[in-house]
Amino acid sequence: ISYVFNAAYDGIVVQAVFFTFADLFIMLLLYRFRIIRVTDKLRSVIVAATLCIAIVYLVNFVMSFFGARIPFLYGSSPLSIGISVVIVVIASLNLLLDFDFMEKGEAYNMPKYFEWYAAFGLLVTLVWLYLEILKLLSKIKSRD
Fold it and tell me: Quick one: which of 30, 36, 66, 131 has the fewest CB in 10 Å?
């Protein structure tokens, strides 16, 4: 969380917001024009990758109780920046799953309250994407 406060002073918060909404718009266009199709195989790959990221974050959280942490999550090395780029890409791909959920919900005439589930899922994905882009930009900025 410290990167959020440090980023406010570096002026990269606006950049992170811009990149988050640009990413949302690009992924929406890719989904809408069927350039990327959400198949069962793609869905399972995205879910598996997201679960792997969640496990790494959970392990890092538990390690933080003992004063340790996974170094490539917080450093500014090329490996750390590369890992952040991969996480941003996976977070972006999760937008496709959100769009697909919304479209299938409409096609299957799901009850009205499922709109809230879809909106909440999209919001969670956007917040995660924003935080990861912010972390990536602060890592790049700290290399200067």
Answer: 66
